[in-house]
Write a structure and sequence with these properties.
The protein is an alpha/beta fold and about 600 residues long. About 35% of the residues lie in helices and about 25% in strands. β11 and β12 (about 290-300) form a beta hairpin. α6 (about 195-205) runs parallel beside α18 (about 570-590), α13 packs across α15 (about 475-480) and α16 (about 525-530) crosses α17 (about 535-540). The N and C termini lie far apart (about 65 Å). About 45% of the residues are buried.
C-alpha cells in the first residue's frame, strides 16, 4: 500500500511540475506575441540570463539581465515570429533540480519560428513576489522548415547522392560522388577527425555537397598515429558522433586506435566524401564569384583547384607542433622529438628520458615510458591543473549521466551562457579539490606547481582559453609522488648540453631522449600558412574567450565570408556541428547573409 501511495504522490508531483512549467511557457508566449514588455519582464528574475543559438539572432548571443533580455526578444520577434511553445511528451519531463545551488524547475520545450523549429530549456524559481520566474532561458535553432535533416521518417529512399548520379548500384554512386570529376563541392572541410566528420555528416543530411580532405593516408590516422597508449580521458557515453552511437560493448575510455577505426567506418557509413593523403595548400576568396579558389595537393603529386563556397577549418584546437627555443638543445647528442612524433616507450627500456611539459600528453607519455622501464623525469615549466579522470573529471559529464536522451542532454549543455558557465566551473572545482585532495597535497609536497585556474575555474576554462595547462590524471601523479617518475623544475636548468640538462649547480641530469610536450600553435596557424597574415588579421582570434564570453570565431560566421571553424572534443563537435551546418544551409538557401 505504501508503495502504491508513493507512486501516486510521484505522479501528482510530476503533474504539478508540468502544470507550473506549462503555465510559465504559455505566459511567456502570450507576452512575446503581444509585444507587452511589462508582461514579458514579469516572466524573468532581474538577474536572469538568456543564451540564443541562431533561433532569434542567427548568431551565438548571450544576454544578461531581464531588461536586456526583454528588449532583445521584442526587437527580434517581429522578424522571427516565435510561436507554438510546447512541452513535448517525448522530451525529458519538467523536474526539480539543483543548478548552481538554486533549487528550480527545469523544463525542456520546443517552438517554431518563421525560419524553422527550435528547442531550449528554462529554469524557474520563486521570486520575492511569490511568482515562479525564469533565471535561465535558452533558445536554439534545430531545423529549417522544408529542409529538415534526412533522417528517421525523413530518410532518403536510396543513397544521399542517387538523385545526382542516377543508377541503381550504390558503390557506383558513391565512387562518382567522391571523385568530383565534373563538379566542385559546396563545402570543403579541412580535417578528417571528429570535427570534420561531424560537420560533414550534418551537411550531408541537409543535402549540402561536402568534401573532407585529410592529410593522412587514412581517415582516423590523426588518432592512430599518436602515442601508443593514448585513450580518451572522458567517458564513452558523452562522446558519440551525430546519428551513430558507439556500440554498447565498447570500453568506457576508448583507445585511440579503436577510435581511429571507428572514424574510418563512420565516414563510409555516413557516405562522407573524403580525399585522404590530400593537403590543403591554400585558398583565396573570389569576391565577384562568391567562392574560394582552393588548392589541394594530392598524394600522387597532382594538384586540384576547387571552387567551394565555404571552407570549414576542422584541423583541431592544436594544429601544428610548437617547438620551443630551449637553450642548448641543439647541442644535445641524444634524440629530440615533439610529442607529435612519439609512438611508444618500447625500445627505450633502461634508458633515460626527459619530458619537457606537465600537461596531459606529457603525463600520458611518462606513464608509457615508465611502463617500458625507462628512467623518466618530467620538467615543469609552469603551474599545472591536475584533475583525476575518475571521479573528478566525471563531474563535468553530469548532465549526460542524468536520465533522458543524449539529444536532451545536448540541449541542456548548449543552454548555459558564459557567466553561468564560470559559476558552474567554480562550484565543480571546489568539489574536485575535495575529491583530489590527497593527490594535490602529495604533488605539492614534492614541489609540483599546482593551480586551479586564474579564476578558480579549473581545467575546463584553461582548455577554452588556451587549449592546455592541465593534466587529466591517469595515474602518473601517484608515480611522481612516490618518486618513480622524476620531477625537475625548468628554472633549475641553465641549458642543455651533449649529455642532458645542465643545472645551475653544475650537475647534469643525463638523458638519451628529450620529449617536447610543449603544445601546438592555435588553429589560425593553418590560416596563416595557407591564406596569409592579412587573412589572420581579418578574422581575428580563433578559439579562446572573446569579449562576450563565448569562443572566438567558433561554430559561427566569421569576419570572412565563407570561412568557418569547428574544433574541440567529441561532445563539442557533435553539438556544434548541427549549428554550423544549419548556418551553411541557410546561406545556401539565401536565408542568411555574411556577418
Amino acid at each position: 500500500m505504501d508503495t502504491e501511495d508513493d507512486g501516486l504522490q510521484e505522479q501528482r508531483a510530476a503533474l504539478e511540475l508540468r502544470r507550473v512549467a506549462a503555465g510559465w511557457l504559455a505566459g511567456f508566449e502570450a507576452a512575446l506575441a503581444s509585444g507587452d514588455a511589462t508582461a514579458l519582464g514579469r516572466m524573468f528574475h532581474a538577474d536572469a540570463h538568456w543564451r540564443d543559438v541562431l533561433a532569434f539572432t542567427w548568431h551565438v548571443t548571450p544576454v544578461a539581465g531581464a531588461d536586456a533580455i526583454v528588449q532583445r526578444l521584442l526587437a527580434e520577434q517581429g522578424r522571427v515570429r516565435a510561436r507554438g511553445f510546447v512541452l513535448p511528451a517525448e522530451r525529458r519531463a519538467p523536474r526539480l533540480v539543483t543548478r548552481l545551488g538554486t533549487r528550480c524547475i527545469e523544463a525542456l520545450y520546443e517552438f517554431s519560428t518563421a525560419i524553422g523549429g527550435g528547442a531550449g530549456i528554462f529554469r524557474l524559481s520563486e521570486a520575492e513576489d511569490g511568482l515562479m520566474k525564469a533565471w535561465l532561458l535558452s533558445t536554439t535553432l534545430q531545423s529549417i522548415t522544408g529542409h529538415e535533416e534526412r533522417i528517421g521518417a525523413n530518410r532518403p529512399s536510396g543513397s544521399a547522392y542517387s538523385r545526382n548520379f542516377g543508377g541503381d548500384n550504390w558503390a557506383d554512386v558513391r565512387r562518382k560522388a567522391a571523385a568530383y570529376e565534373d563538379r566542385d563541392p559546396a563545402v570543403l572541410v579541412v580535417g578528417g577527425a571528429q570535427a570534420g566528420l561531424a560537420v560533414a555528416a550534418r551537411l550531408n543530411r541537409l543535402g549540402v555537397d561536402t568534401l573532407v580532405v585529410e592529410k593522412w593516408p587514412r581517415i582516423g590516422d590523426s588518432w592512430r598515429k599518436r602515442y601508443h597508449s593514448l585513450a580518451l580521458h572522458n567517458s564513452i557515453h558523452i562522446n558519440h558522433l551525430p546519428y551513430m552511437p558507439f556500440p554498447p560493448s565498447w570500453p568506457t575510455y576508448i583507445p585511440k586506435d579503436m577510435l581511429g577505426n571507428w572514424f574510418e567506418f563512420y565516414a563510409d557509413a555516413m557516405e562522407i566524401n573524403c580525399w585522404t593523403d590530400t593537403e590543403f595548400a591554400g585558398a583565396e576568396w573570389d569576391g565577384p564569384a562568391q567562392c574560394w579558389n582552393a588548392r589541394l595537393k594530392r598524394g600522387d603529386g597532382s594538384e586540384r583547384v576547387m571552387r567551394p563556397r565555404h571552407i570549414v577549418c576542422a584541423n583541431g584546437v592544436s594544429s601544428y607542433p610548437m617547438m620551443p627555443d630551449v637553450p642548448g638543445l641543439d647541442a644535445f647528442q641524444g634524440t629530440v622529438m615533439h610529442s607529435e612524433g612519439f609512438d611508444s616507450g618500447a625500445g627505450w627500456g633502461g634508458k633515460r628520458a626527459l619530458i619537457l611539459g606537465t600537461g596531459s600528453s606529457a603525463n600520458d607519455m611518462a606513464l608509457d615510458l615508465h611502463s617500458h622501464g625507462v628512467h623518466t623525469t618530467m620538467i615543469q615549466r609552469g603551474s599545472t591543473t591536475v584533475v583525476s579522470i575518475n571521479p573528478s573529471a566525471r563531474l563535468n559529464e553530469a548532465v549526460w549521466d542524468e536520465p533522458g536522451t543524449m539529444e536532451d542532454a545536448d540541449v541542456i549543455a548548449s543552454s548555459v551562457p558564459p557567466p553561468l558557465v564560470l559559476r558552474n566551473y567554480r562550484a565543480v572545482v571546489k568539489r574536485m579539490m575535495e575529491l583530489d585532495r590527497e593527490i594535490v597535497e602529495g604533488l605539492r609536497r614534492i614541489g609540483f606547481k599546482h593551480d586551479i585556474g586564474e579564476d578558480e575555474t579549473g581545467h575546463q576554462m584553461k582548455y577554452f582559453r588556451r587549449g592546455g595547462g592541465y593534466n587529466l590524471d591517469a595515474g602518473s601523479s601517484e608515480l611522481l609522488i612516490k618518486g618513480e617518475i622524476g620531477l625537475l623544475q625548468y628554472d633549475r636548468i641553465e641549458r642543455f648540453v651533449a649529455e642532458g640538462a645542465l643545472l645551475h649547480d653544475g650537475s647534469v641530469v643525463p638523458a638519451d631522449l628529450v620529449l617536447l610536450a610543449t603544445g601546438y600553435y592555435p588553429q589560425q596557424e593553418l590560416i596563416r600558412r595557407s591564406m596569409g597574415e592579412a587573412m589572420v588579421e581579418r578574422i581575428g582570434p580563433v578559439w579562446g574567450i572573446g569579449p562576450d564570453g563565448e569562443l572566438n570565431n567558433m561554430y559561427k560566421r566569421t569576419p570572412q565570408q565563407g570561412l568557418w571553424f569547428i574544433a574541440g572534443g567529441l561532445p563539442q563537435c557533435r553539438i556544434n556541428s548541427k549549428f554550423l551546418a544549419l548556418q551553411i544551409k541557410a546561406m545556401e538557401l539565401g536565408q542568411l547573409g555574411p556577418l
